[in-house]
Amino acid sequence: MLYRIITIDGPAGAGKTTVSKLLAKKLGCVRVDTGALYRGVAHEIKKQKIMWQDDAALKAFLSRLDLTFVLKKEEFRLISSGKDITPHIRTPEITMLASVTSARPAVRSALLDLQRRIASQQDAVFEGRDMGTVVFPDAKVKFFLFADLEVRARRRYEEMPDPAKDLFQVQAEMAARDTNDAQRVQAPLKPAPDAIHIDSSHLTARQVVDEMLRHL
Ligand code: DC
After folding, report:
1. Contact 145, 4 (CB under 8 A)
2. Domain 5-215 in this protein, CATH class
3. Is 104 in the pocket of ligand 1 (CB under 6 A)?
């Protein structure tokens, strides 16, 4: 039921995770982090040593892929063939591998079906890059959340428990990922024509959610 889907798209560090969690809580529905699915694919590609540049190998791998979300204590866990891989998908290596492999058409089409299946089962706030443009073009309310690169890099840097990199490195990696995500041919990061744009550079997460609720 697409009228029950709210989409939030935007670049890394714009605040989608915090904001989508708060918004879903306010609305009493689930939040689906679609970046986690792309990270799950990257994790399995690495673990199974898949030659993902080879289309035939990639497609064979995707046809065997068994990725799902399971709700545990109000949090979705990412399950691959029965194993909880949630703790392993946020490493810097998986972050970059997810960014490059998510540009492959076969990966996007496999995850498109999965995301729509999840949406057919419940009301949800979906966050990602192409929620409003490709996956749920008929969603009634779409948000595009963004912020200045410096602000986004600083947020990521401050989230790191024991930063092994300096702020400039974090900013450079984020800029590289922005370019990958925005310039790919398949479902590039861009706002849907009917998306409501919110600049979070100078707003707290609560202020962003209040702004979203005003639109809803
Ligand atoms: O939001 P994130 O950083 O966890 O996303 C990981 C990668 O997955 C990111 O580089 C872009 C990609 N992604 C995508 O292509 N489409 C989505 N809907 C969500 C994420």
Report:
1. no
2. alpha beta
3. no
pTM over the 0.90 mark: yes
Q: How far is the CA of 28 from the centre of ligand 1 (A)?
A: 24
Q: Is 40 in the pocket of ligand 1 (CB under 6 A)?
A: no
Cβ(92)–Cβ(176) below 8 Å = no
Q: Is 43 in the pocket of ligand 1 (CB under 6 A)?
A: no
Query: Tens of pLDDT along 122-179?
Result: 899 999 999 999 999 999 899 999 999 999 999 989 888 776 778 999 999 999 989 8
State in Å: Cα 125 to ligand 1 middle.
Answer: 15
- What ligand 1 atom has the least distance to the C-alpha of 130? 18
Q: Does 58 contact ligand 1 (Cβ within 6 A)? A: no
> What whole-number distance in Å separates Cα of residue 5 and Cα of residue 65?
26
Residue corresponding to tokens 């706030």 = 125
What is the C-alpha separation between 213 and 8, in angstroms, rounded? Answer: 13
The rounded distance, in Å, linking the Cα atoms of 101 and 42 is: 7
